[in-house]
Structure formats: C-alpha cells, structure tokens
Design a protein that fits this description.
Layout lengths: L2 H6 L13 E7 L6 H11 L4 E7 L1 H9 L6 E3 L4 H8 L8 E6 L1 E4 L21 E4 L5 H12 L3 H4 L3 E4 L2 H10 L3 E5 L17 E3 L8 E7 L7 H10 L2 H9 L6
Parallel strand pairs: 1-2, 1-3, 6-7, 6-8
Antiparallel strand pairs: 3-10, 4-10, 5-8, 5-9
Helix pairs in contact: 2-9
Length: 251
C-alpha cells in the first residue's frame, strides 16, 4: 500500500498485510456512540482479536471501499450502499439488516415538543442542522420526513448540512438553533444531559421510511474467520441488547 493511499483513508497501517488478530470495520457515523460498547462485548468473547473501526458517512465509506480501502466489514446506515457493493462484487455476503435507526429533533434550549416536528416552524428558529442527503442516509430520511410533513420547502433556506450524522449532532449542539439527528446519538455520554420532551423528541416514524441499517462482509474480509466472528456477533442477542440501549430498533 502506498503512502498516498494510506493518507487518503486517514489512518496508518504499518504493514501491507494485516497481522493475525486484527480486523478493520467501516462503520457509519450514527453508530459511533454504540460501537465502543459493542467492541468491548465482542472482545470479551474474542480477546485475541483487535477491531479497528473507521467511522464516516456511509456514502464516503462506500466511495473509499470502491477505491480500494482495505476495510473487511461494512456497517452502513442504509441498505442502498451495501447492495451497491454487493452488485459490484466488492461485498461477499448479501446485505442483511442488523438494526433500524430512528430520527429525533434536538435542541440545547428547552422547548415544548407538543407540536412534534412542526416545532421547526417556530419563527425564532433560524438555523436547522440536518445530515446531507447526498452522503448520509439519515439525511435522506430527514428530507423525506420534512417533505411528508409539508415543511421542506418552507424551511430549506434554514438548513445547515452535516456531512455525517455525527457532524450534524455537533452543528445541532453548537452552531444552530435545533437539528434533526439520529436518536442513537442522544445516548452518548456527552449528550445525556439533554432530556427527552425537554431538549429532544423522536420524529414520528410514520413520516419516513424505516432506516434499515445494512451489514456486509467485504472482499478484503473473505474467508477471514475473525471477520465472520464479528459479523455473527453483530447479529447476536448481546449485540442487539446494546443496540436497543442506544436507541435502535432490532428485528
């Protein structure tokens, strides 16, 4: 692997081959808050396997995989990107849903959420953080919800776009009046100060298509027992329990 490629993907691998016991998992940014507990639980089962996690928007991670990034397993925020990789023979397993995400409205200011998503019409709200629908599946779901609520055209000039859902959370808490984020992000330790019905409220699930989160083993992880072990773990009851604790739905 050349230095140019290493720099492109933003991390360092000190050998052109992964050493035994190390796997690289590309994870959509919405799972950034749950991934450490998941890794910890997996490590208890497989103490000799080191899991390196690369976080990013699903769209950007897919582009990196298409350009040769050596990721071995991909956890996407939707099914579209895994299906694309499977179609292009860059994924070795058919995409499977491992969890479903949900949207929530978040403001650091105390608000009355009785109006639910229509709180965004409040004239005092001048900037609204949303994920970029071009790169983040949660952005696609957000736009769909706003359109179904007949709010998109009225509010689009107020949008501040985050390239990933984690960046959107930063904007919502630091740079805008309010934001639409992944419900899972609200369970991060640094956000537990914000309380449901005071600082945040879930978006009506009927306003958007269920956010099926997809997982595939990639070409780089073919015939790797440790990659398969992590894949199986993500479908286990223990992983599902952790995901539910972080605001996801499981099937």
């Amino acid at each position: 692997m050349t230095k140019k490629i290493i720099a492109m993907f933003g991390f360092f691998i000190f050998s052109s081959f992964l050493i035994a016991g190390e796997i690289i998992v590309a994870v959509s940014a919405n799972v950034s808050y749950a991934i450490e507990p998941l890794k910890k639980a997996f490590h208890q089962r497989h103490p000799h396997t080191n899991v390196t996690v690369i976080l990013g928007s699903s769209g950007k991670l897919t582009a990196q995989i298409s350009h040769g990034a050596p990721y071995q397993l991909f956890m996407s925020a939707n099914m579209l990107y895994p299906h694309t990789l499977y179609r292009d023979k860059l994924a070795m397993t058919k995409p499977i849903v491992y969890a479903q995400g949900a949207l929530a409205i978040l403001s650091t200011k105390e608000r009355n959420y009785c109006a639910e998503i229509f709180i965004l019409k409040d004239p005092s709200i001048q900037k609204i953080a949303i994920a970029n629908p071009k790169t983040a599946p949660y952005g696609v779901a957000t736009v769909e919800a706003l359109k179904n609520a007949k709010l998109y055209k009225k509010l689009k000039d107020k949008f501040v776009y985050g390239e990933s859902i984690s960046q959107t959370v930063i904007y919502a808490t630091r740079a805008t009046d309010i934001g639409i984020v992944a419900k899972s992000s609200l369970y991060a330790p640094q956000l537990l100060q914000y309380k449901e019905a005071i600082h945040w409220a879930e978006v009506d699930e009927h306003l958007y298509t269920a956010i099926d989160q997809g997982m595939v083993i990639l070409k780089e992880g073919k015939d790797n027992n440790e990659v398969k072990a992590f894949y199986d773990f993500m479908l286990s009851k223990e992983a599902k329990r952790i995901l539910v604790a972080f605001g996801y739905r499981v099937l």
